[in-house]
Amino acid sequence: MPTAKIPSDPVQKALPLYRLVKRDLQQMIEAGHYGIGKALPNEATLSTAMKVSIGTLRHAVDELVHEHVLVRRQGKGTFVAPHNNARFMFQFFQVEPRPDPEEGHPIRELEYPDIACISFTRDKAQPTEARALRIRPGDQVFRIENKLSLNKQVVVHDQLTLPLAKFRNLSEHQFVNRSSTVYALYQSDFGITVLRAQERARAVAAGRSVARVLGMPVGCPVIEVHRLALTFADKPVEYRISTIDTRAHDYVSVLSKK
Amino acid sequence: MPTAKIPSDPVQKALPLYRLVKRDLQQMIEAGHYGIGKALPNEATLSTAMKVSIGTLRHAVDELVHEHVLVRRQGKGTFVAPHNNARFMFQFFQVEPRPDPEEGHPIRELEYPDIACISFTRDKAQPTEARALRIRPGDQVFRIENKLSLNKQVVVHDQLTLPLAKFRNLSEHQFVNRSSTVYALYQSDFGITVLRAQERARAVAAGRSVARVLGMPVGCPVIEVHRLALTFADKPVEYRISTIDTRAHDYVSVLSKK
DNA sequence: AAGTGGTCTAGACCACTTG
DNA sequence: AAGTGGTCTAGACCACTTT
Question: pTM score, two decimals?
């Protein structure tokens, strides 16, 4: 049942029932009450347990499905959204070969990038990172450098910064030998589900080390994307600077997605 | 009532009722049956007219609201989404001052850009534009150049390409003296509602003319965004190349929006 | 056959806006 | 007070998956 139909803070407007149900579900999910591969209790059970009608329960679940927190599968059940499928891969990996202007948009296989780890170290957080990650400057972080290739061509250089406190015991071996995407790793091994990411992009001239990795002359214009990945309640989990070689690829996005 | 509960193509899976209702509503909207400032018939009326329950009608409307095609206002009615508010302005205008690293994210007023028209001409479509807009190369287009300023500083150079066929009689005076955003103009004066946009960004070295407009040295890295704006059924309406000075501003985006 | 989510209905009542 | 959308209920039946 919703734990508090009457909000504790009288200034807050009363939430509708289905929002309370949603909030309670979300708290259960965050707390890890529902295993990643296993189904939630079925809707009839949940609705009686929470003392709401099944329509209200569905309303709450609908919203969580819309936010990619849950997925429904008819005939099977409702699950915590796994973070290991192509959908999420391409929701977050936004670099594509530039279409040939002569041919328009060929029906092309979406391509997974090959990811190679260049370095994996511990370090102290720089002020900028610390502010983004809401930790203190000097707190320990993992600093991981990757290069991403499409079609044997290196197109992206990534530098990830992870707060050590959230990723205790992460090892290079574990990172390099993960079975799926890094976000799937965060979820399966650390219980951290990345829900959203904010990105800020700018054009800069490639520096020496990045130019070497990307195989381009120093000073070549590249896009530098600063990404902050967020989990529930917009808590930051990862800070990432991606440098993209856009000589033959584009950084793509869709506004106002349906 | 939904015009065809039984789909004409037997290969197609049968759509649920609420999808048929949605499709019919969408067709009415596209055809302009519902004026832009006026409310649709109320939900009870629509549901009886379409011979469906009010719950089913609401399900259909819910989806259109989620896609920003309609907006509901409690106590007033349901309206075709107007394209003239801050929400849409910033949904599509994605350039922001870079936050000061010393201060983090100040609570800053979102700022409207000042837009100045540099040139307004007719021309023939280039092959690339033509393909994007799905017209023939050589078909007539409007070609419009703008510069956008934030805080008196020019930060974006835009070049718009509009198919003349869709924008008959558009005049420079009309364009320059519009009362709101260009997308609001498309909607109010030409019945064209921009629903989505695809963008492809790359880093390039600023050319002579753009560098002059942006007040930067030639060769300075800039982001070049190629945007295709789409209406219902993903029909293209506008092709736009924006060149962004990212020395002090960022091109921002949010992935997996809630 | 049993269990799950998906659709659809009919109606009651609430909250907000306008006259 | 009247009209609008917003919430909530209780139940029937359908479609898909597994046993």
Answer: 0.87
Give Cα separations from B253 to A199, A212, B114 (angstroms).
5, 28, 21
Please give the CATH topology (third level) of the domain spanning A86-251.
Chorismate lyase (3.40.1410)
Report pLDDT digits (tens) over B31-87: 888 877 788 999 999 999 999 999 999 999 999 999 889 999 999 999 998 876 656
Residue A16's nearest nucleotide, by CA–C1', is D7
Beta strand pairing call for B236-244 and B140-150: unpaired
Residue closest to D5 C1′ by Cα: B74
Considering only the beta carbons, identify the residue of B98, B244, B256 that sits closest to A195: B256
pLDDT of residue A225 exceeding 90, the answer is: yes
* CB of B55 within 7 Å of some strand C atom: yes
Contact check, Cβ <8 Å, B101/A128: yes
The residues that bridge with A147 in the sheet, in sequence order, are: A116, A157
Nearest nucleotide, CA B74 to C1': D5
3-state secondary structure of A225: strand
* pLDDT on residue A98: 79
Task: Looking at the structure, give the CATH architecture of the domain made up of residues A17-80.
Answer: Orthogonal Bundle (1.10)
